[in-house]
Amino acid sequence: MLTERPAVDHPEGFTALARLLGGRRAVVLTGAGCSTESGIPDYRGPDGRLRARLPMRYQEFMGERTARARYWSRSAVGWPRFSAARPNRAHHALAELEELGTVTGIITQNVDGLHQAAGSRRVVELHGSLAEVRCMQCRELEDRRALQRRLEATNPGLEARAGRIAPDGDVELPPRTHASFVVPTCVACEGVLKPDVVFFGENVPAARVEEAWRLFETADVLLVVGSSLSVFSGRRFVIRAQKVDRPVAILNRGPTRGDGAAEVKVDGAAGELLPRLVATLRSTPPDPARRFEESSPP
Ligand code: NAD
Q1: Does domain 12-289 have CATH number 1.10.3720.10?
Q2: pTM to 2 decimals?
Q3: 178 in helix, strand or coil?
Q4: Which of 91, 144, 162, 230 has the CA that lies 20 to 30 A from 186?
Q5: Which positions ≥6 away from 160 have C-beta within 8 Å?
Q6: Is 178 known to be catalytic?
Q7: Domain ranges of the chain
Q8: Which of 91, 92, 115, 127 is catalytic?
Q9: Which tens digits make up the pLDDT trace of 215-231?
Q10: pLDDT at 294 over 50
Q11: Which of ligand 1's atoms lies nearest the C-alpha of 46?
Q12: Lowest-confidence segment of 23-37, 174-188, 270-284 by average pLDDT
């Protein structure tokens, strides 16, 4: 449960954010809003409401061949565009903040690999990565690029019917496209193939959550960037921060479910505000009265 407290908003929020982070170490929790400026849409947007299309659910994907045909046909067309996305100014600024020693690492809910592409070194991909595909029978991993070659060879001509790119790295296709789609299976055992990401209705693997908690413990501030915090697997870090009295700062366009727990809330675009934050922290001499202190374990 989150306890409400009044949040400080932009533009005073920006100054308060810079003051909060100066001379401190922050762990950053990122969400889809960090990648919208790279051309990958988010799920909710600034009004906080889920966009029309519901994301694929784990039970549906595993239980229905038609659901897998729908998923993989959209993904086959969306992948070339999704994988061509490049890090934006927000990703680069976060990598710089790690260089500066302000950021200890990133816990990301994104599955696009753009933090690593920008040069961030310590990244926990809470929900996995679309770059790999796992066989749900023999657990073997396949590179998504290799699967793409197989998908295109067995399903020629899909690209011509593509619509706009969607948040899961896929696109809208006319409904009848799925009926004739050849669903890929594992090359080793013909088991069901699933992208190596956590679907809605699926739990984050325990080892990955533990890795995220270890990273959480390296910092004395939690900074949330571009997440509505609607999903518990991300919101839990805000709940814990509040419980152990660790300040929370939120930089997001529009409201989030953690606003009431934030010491500082800045409403704005990550790609604009994070580079400004880098510039401000670079030009501010560290406060000698503020020492780094190791946090106690949970
Ligand atoms: P969300 O869509 O629920 O929330 C995104 C938030 O970011 C919104 O409040 C939105 O207004 C804000 N935002 C959008 N552009 C912004 C910008 N430029 N600067 C600052 N804020 C901005 O996303 P979520 O909280 O990450 O949760 C959705 C789930 O969907 C996650 O679990 C994630 O795994 C998955 N997802 C991933 C991607 C990706 O990998 N890029 C994309 C969509 C969804």
Answers
A1: no
A2: 0.90
A3: helix
A4: 162
A5: none
A6: no
A7: 12-289
A8: 127
A9: 999 999 999 999 999 99
A10: no
A11: 11
A12: 174-188
